[in-house]
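Q: Second attempt. The first request was missing the SMILES, so the protein and zinc ion are both included now.
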Amino acid sequence: MLDGDDGELRDAIFLGVGDEGAPVFAIERDAVELTGLRELAVSLPAQQLGVIAYASAMANWARATRFCGTCGLATEPREGGHVRACGNGHQHHPRTDPVVIMLVTDGDRALLGRQAGWPAGRYSALAGFVEPGERLEDAVAREVEEESGLAVRDVRYIASQPWPFPVSLMLGFHATYAGGEIHRADEELEDVSWFTRAEIAAAVPGDMLWIDGAASDRLMLPPPTAIARLLIDHWVEQG
Ligand SMILES: [Zn+2]
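A: Got both inputs this time. The predicted holo structure:
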């Protein structure tokens, strides 16, 4: 399997032992453009997505860590590519950036938002990066406030999903509306609106439409493999 040149072999990242008992490595090939990874991410089964997310996140981290952030020397891979070290012995470990994604609900309504560049009809749960020193619950409240002007309470963890763009972990929450009128403090989203349970249940399921970037004159939800959709389905089923 390892037919690359020496440089590629040296930079191979050990991912684990596969179902057949063979070791699995991630090797970055400059000649191969990883187009469609976002599309793959919403269409693959969770197990396959997990392997690809892992390989992509490790490769992204290795590429961004070619030089030591402490002294500036070039780094070399150690321990199967899971550590990178410079000549001065500074060691660097892979990191993950936490992102909170949350479905805010108010009885029979859920809050969804859309980005300006999205095809018509597409809406999803609000999301944003966790800031240094911040609790996840506070990150949920802050992002909702920034993107919609609303306050929330009862922030409850539901599920997570790795998201290798470039090295994120999406942490999914439900939160309950606690007050305020919709007012977008930043320009991150083009629209934020309440949708009733009936509107959401009658929406176009994203599936291939979402992956193909199609527009819709009706509300279009993220595909079933996306954590945003899991949060939405979970809430619809509760009703
Ligand atoms: Zn160093």
